[in-house]
Request: fold
Amino acid sequence: MRNPDIAAPQFQRALGPLDATMIVIGSMIGSGIFIVSADIARTVGGGGYLLLVWLVTGVITILGALSYGELAGMLPHAGGQYVYLREAYNPLIGFLYGWTLFVVIQTGTIAAVAVAFAKFTSVLLPSLGEQTVLLAIGGFRVSAAQVVAILSIIVLTAANLRGIREGKVIQNIFTIAKTTALLGLIVLALAIGWNAEIVTANLATFWNAVRTQVTEGNILSLETLTGMGLLAAFGAAMVGSLFSSDAWNNITFTAAEVVNPQRTIPLSLFVGTLTVTLIYLLANVAYLAVLPVAGSAGATDVLGRGIQFAVNDRVGTAAATAIFGEGTAVVMALLIMVSTFGCNNGLILAGARVYYAMARDRLFFTSAGTLNNNGVPAGALIAQAIWACALCLSGTYGDLLDYVVFAVLIFYILTVAGVFILRRKRPDAPRPYKAFGYPVLPALYIAAAAAISLNLLVVKPAYTWPGLGLVVLGIPVYFAWARRRAA
Reply:
């Protein structure tokens, strides 16, 4: 029995403005910026549309962050977005967000980023790649890459179990390192790698909207896009850029550990999302300076393959090769390893705080609702790690992430709409920061996100409906927890 004279562990307010901003930036920048531009280029064609996809994604992200700032200042509690939804609507809506976050959004992203880390580790150590099968039982196989991915999750979880200060040190070091390296790559591409012939060719097709359909590495068809077809393709192309720009809201989960959260969180949301948006745009300008957009899947060199057909969609590696020649794969692998490792630290650190808040509401495992002697939710961190590792072994995390694109957008829409709802429900509540441009900019965000969601329902029904099903599956789970709470 705990001695009543011994105070229970408390969250420690150890995250200052720099730390909070590093969590925003570090959680957003993973491996996506080095990869997804290839699929965007195949979907919409010219370099102008490639840049426009990233620009629109960035503007939408910043608008969402500006709106979240008001909620963060009004409700600076552990759990962030879960708390906003609970207070704006009801416990069911909050739970459905937390449920989806745990089942796939956060844990699936952690698994996917960990496997990306492992894949690039195998560039340095080929024996640790996916081709090295360590265990095979029937159709179930475990590769060395999966083991590396799992070990990376365990290491980062163990580090974060030691306390928020340890977690933030890792976050700051890796975020500064990868941001500096990425900016260095951009500067070198523009200063040294600039290829006037390629730039001229890309400018000539800058606004050519052509969808390249590929089957088994071969071009199946080229479709000129106009009107609604172009809008539909543009929305579909944003799936990759949206995921690459996601996780900016994670800082809200850690509000109980932020110094002066009413000011620090809104500021970090704006500075962090703006910084990442600018870096992503500059990275794609750099790609267009050294690589042609269009290419051939059968070409043997990076210029022949272009952005569209970079090997394994590794546009960042192709750009580095175009600048420095062959032999840069190891350098890029190291950069992406640093990027993904730091990204996962932020995701692991922040995600557990949501499950802690749910457990405090008796809507999650009781053990997740307590803090260890280091002032962190150990049970929540461990539960998150176990499920993320299971997803690594399942190999289904990629499909699951595709399924929840729609669900993620819906929860963002509901949260920003919560700004309007809470202004009506709690007009006198303290709001140290008010949503910039209210009501126009929050409404614009809702309209833009809703348009993308409706577009995805039409153009990618195989992904959107299963994602909605995962959310709906949480309804009976909620009532089971609610009965348990009432018992």
The radius of gyration is 22 Å. The longest strand covers residues 218-224. Residues 76 and 255 are 5 Å apart (CA to CA). Residues 17-486 form a domain with the Amino acid/polyamine transporter I fold (CATH 1.20.1740.10).
